[in-house]
């Protein structure tokens, strides 16, 4: 996931809930001091996590080939004193894994996703080593608190391969039922611009389009040919015309991958393109895909070529759960040394105008957010020498520093604080789930909010 195109957007107010605007008593986070206990615990882990963070950073592996990271992370989880049940190569993927801490008493199941993959040729230019660090720290701290205070429930850490690209590992985990029985899913993502618990990303899909015509000599008997390149050009023009009437947030990218060859004296028998589509929501994306498909069919109709359209569903938009986000923001602001930039206010009953961070890129955590309540917290790390954003060589340097690591630990503390809130605050999980149901109803509306 990248963080380019970031803007803060105030959204329409929603129904209030008591726990989003806690009373002073509720602010005392259950038995007071859970958060400071989490802080102390994660600080004590720092020297064990730093080499792990560096190892992942210095051994970048691309999507679904995170063999070294998989080994290092599962070894680390096995080495912990809390009794974690660690399953390597889980859910039919060599580099997916799951670690479960079960209190033995029925209660909420809280989960954290651990991303591991890097970018081809760019190393950890998306900082997924920091995501891994934050989630592992959070998972361990949550389990430690559960053990010490005999809290019911369980913690799951999912090693989720292949976030970069368009066939996310989390989607495969969802298909395999990994999140069945999971109550919440927490994750984070580094950037350089902002700290936010209310992150919205775009929905993304990809069309591979091929036209099949009939070859003929372009001078002797062109009337016997069917020009596949003409079909593609007509479709390209139709898509270009459609671009005027798209909705805010819609993005249509086209690349011609087969122009039919170099010959000018032949009717081109084959032509192909790839089309990448983004929209503010999965519902809107469905509409956009239908419109663009129509353009491609139009090229075929106009020329008599046959068209083959292969749709690769990409990622859904991320719908942040604002009840969980409020908990995360409270923890973030209660931890000492709050870094810049300040986190936008969490949603409250009075203001009722949550500020979403809209990020013009996509993540498979979006698909998870349609299955279980989710937070994908953005956090700012000190920029590299050139101030480069994610997916730049500069950000790959920035994500390997000790300062970035310390920031990830801070995120881990706030994520653990959120999970412990869910485990300890009566009625909070019900509030979270009620909000998620409202969000899923809203998500059926394709108009951008
Ligand atoms: Zn990325
Ligand atoms: Zn990323």
From TrEMBL:
Residue ranges of domain Peptidase M20 dimerisation in the record: 205-296
A GO MF term: dipeptidase activity
Gene3D superfamilies (UniProt xref): 3.30.70.360, Zn peptidases
Stored InterPro entries: Amidohydrolase, Bact_exopeptidase_dim_dom, Peptidase_M20/M20A_hydrolases, Peptidase_M20_dimer, Xaa-Arg_dipeptidase
SUPFAM superfamilies to which the protein is assigned, alphabetical: Bacterial exopeptidase dimerisation domain (SSF55031), Zn-dependent exopeptidases (SSF53187)
Family to which the UniProt record says this protein belongs: Belongs to the peptidase M20A family.
Official protein name in the record: Peptidase M20 domain-containing protein 2
Organism: Thermothielavioides terrestris (strain ATCC 38088 / NRRL 8126)
């Amino acid at each position: 996931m990248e963080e380019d195109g970031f803007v803060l957007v105030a959204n329409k107010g929603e129904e209030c809930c008591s726990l989003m605007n806690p009373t002073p008593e509720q602010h005392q986070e259950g038995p007071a001091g859970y958060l400071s206990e989490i802080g102390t615990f994660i600080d004590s882990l720092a020297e064990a996590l730093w080499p792990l963070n560096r190892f992942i950073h210095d051994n970048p592996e691309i999507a679904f080939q995170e063999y070294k990271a998989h080994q290092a992370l599962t070894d680390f989880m096995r080495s912990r004193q809390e009794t974690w049940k660690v399953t390597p190569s889980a859910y039919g993927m060599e580099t997916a894994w799951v670690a479960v801490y079960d209190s033995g008493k029925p209660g909420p199941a809280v989960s954290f996703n651990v991303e591991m993959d890097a970018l081809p040729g760019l190393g950890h230019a998306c900082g997924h080593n920091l995501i891994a660090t934050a989630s592992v720290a959070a998972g361990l701290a949550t389990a430690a608190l559960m053990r010490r205070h005999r809290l019911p429930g369980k913690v799951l850490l999912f090693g989720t391969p292949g976030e970069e690209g368009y066939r996310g590992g989390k989607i495969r985990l969802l298909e395999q039922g990994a999140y069945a029985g999971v109550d919440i899913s927490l994750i984070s993502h580094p950037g350089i611009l902002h700290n936010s618990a209310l992150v919205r990303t775009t929905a993304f899909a990809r069309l591979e389009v091929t036209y099949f015509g009939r070859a003929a000599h372009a001078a002797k008997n062109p009337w016997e040919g069917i020009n596949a390149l003409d079909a593609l050009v007509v479709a390209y023009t139709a898509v270009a015309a459609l671009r005027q009437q798209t909705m805010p947030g819609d993005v249509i990218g086209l690349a011609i991958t087969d122009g039919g060859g170099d010959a000018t004296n032949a009717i081109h028998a084959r032509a192909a393109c790839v089309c990448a589509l983004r929209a503010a929501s999965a519902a809107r994306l469905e509409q956009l895909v239908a419109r663009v498909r129509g353009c491609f069919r139009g090229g075929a109709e106009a020329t008599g070529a046959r068209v083959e359209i292969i749709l690769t569903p990409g990622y859904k938009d991320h719908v942040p759960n604002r009840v969980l986000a409020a908990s995360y923001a409270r923890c973030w602001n209660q931890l000492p040394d709050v870094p810049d930039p300040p986190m936008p206010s969490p949603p409250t009953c009075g203001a009722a105008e949550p500020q979403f961070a809209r990020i013009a890129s996509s993540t498979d955590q979006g698909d998870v957010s349609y299955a279980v309540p989710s937070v994908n917290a953005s956090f700012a790390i000190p920029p590299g020498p050139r101030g480069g954003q994610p997916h730049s060589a500069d950000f790959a340097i920035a994500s390997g520093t000790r300062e970035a690591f310390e920031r990830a630990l801070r995120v881990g503390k706030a994520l653990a604080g959120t999970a412990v809130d869910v485990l300890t605050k009566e009625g909070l999980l019900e509030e979270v789930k009620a909000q998620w149901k409202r969000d899923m109803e809203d998500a059926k509306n394709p108009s951008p909010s």
